Structure prediction request, 472 residues.
Amino acid sequence: MGKTKLAFISDIHYYSPKLGTEGRAYELRSGSDQKCLAESGAVVDAAFDLLKRSDVDAVVISGDITNNGERCSHEEMREKIDGFLKEKPLYLITSTHDWCTNGNPRRFVGNEVFHDVPALDAAALDAFYADIGESKVVSAYENGHGFHSRCYQVSETLRLLAVNDDADGPGGSSGYSEAHLAWMEAQIAAAKAAGCDVIATEHHLLLPNVSPLINNGQSIGGREAVAARLADAGLRLIFVGHSHFQRTSEFVSPAGNKITQVNVGSLCGYPAPIDYVTVENGVAAIDVEFLRGFTYNGKDYGAPFFKEHSAAVLYNLLNAAASDKEDLRERLAAEGIRFGAYDKVYFLIRRLARTALKIKVGKAGRIVNFLTFGRGVDRKAVKALKNEPLLPHIIDIFLCLFDGSYIARDMPEAVKTVALDVSTLPRRVISKLPMKKAKKEKIYRTTDQIEALMEELVHPSAPDNLHVTVSL
Ligand SMILES: [Fe+2]
Ligand SMILES: [Fe+2]
Prediction:
């Protein structure tokens, strides 16, 4: 069979500069988000430039093309896509942020936020991108909400099942009606009958990957049953977006069929991944690269910008909490959190924030060990890190969510030991509390998940989240 190379990108969340890129209101919006909004156009341009010059046969966008479905964002993004299409084929699916199910497209002027931005609705959105890849469509399915799923012949030997999962699942959740799922199964069978390999993309997760605690709600409805149906129909590889996490996971159906899910992170947020997949002789080899930089307003930015932008979300909040009550109030309001309830305990919040910003690992470890009679965290590991500030380590562990634990690869073992010990504290605290056994057992299910989450972050279950091989 021939060789086909595709590049998957996702969650571009392109934000039109017309919506405002400066002033206090924009700064609060941008400072509360992992995504780089003002810079999104420059990031897309850098990625498209790179991909135009690369050896990929086509590019696939796995949904959330725009920030919040604003018409101006779609129009400007469409211009960028049309420019790219002059060089190489591109396929895409849209998702909820493209038609604004959260009803929240906004623009920012000075201190003010305006909610009067025209957005595309479902029907307008589907028509807006329908012509892209039209000549390669093998079959299409309309899901009843105005959205189409399509199967594309991307090369002589490879088909792409690009499905829109918006609002078609149980009770209007993300997912698929029975007819939609049956159409997908038929496409998988038809591809195989035609002697082609088939890979798929949908926006929401087929399966939670980092932890059900975090991304249960980011998955499609009836996910395990759907995953089993697709695996049993012969689908072996699916690319998803939505969580903004770059992470690979596997699922085996009760009948013993395996499907691999590659969750593609957000292009406009840390770590800005591009997922390449080369399909040849029935084998798909996936290699993830992180965008190395972009040029915004004439200035060059490197990859560390994405990391700093994500870390700033936490630093901004802590700095505000440590020194400026009004700033904190406004930042929380930008996240939809009302400060009122915390007003009376602000003195405590300020104290904690000041401590969090400067505390060293050694001191934090001693406090935890004092409170737990010396059994909190490994003393040797704490000693090895005693003069290091704690916060950058917490941020690194947090960022492992987004980068497939790429940071964890170079993380000192002592940091991992302390992090794993800390994750066991909730269970140990609960075990000491006077509480009925049945209630404890119920809480343990959550504390077990906290421990499993930390384990997944510092020792990811996928051997290498950035390089994966799948037999199709
Ligand atoms: Fe997204
Ligand atoms: Fe999404």
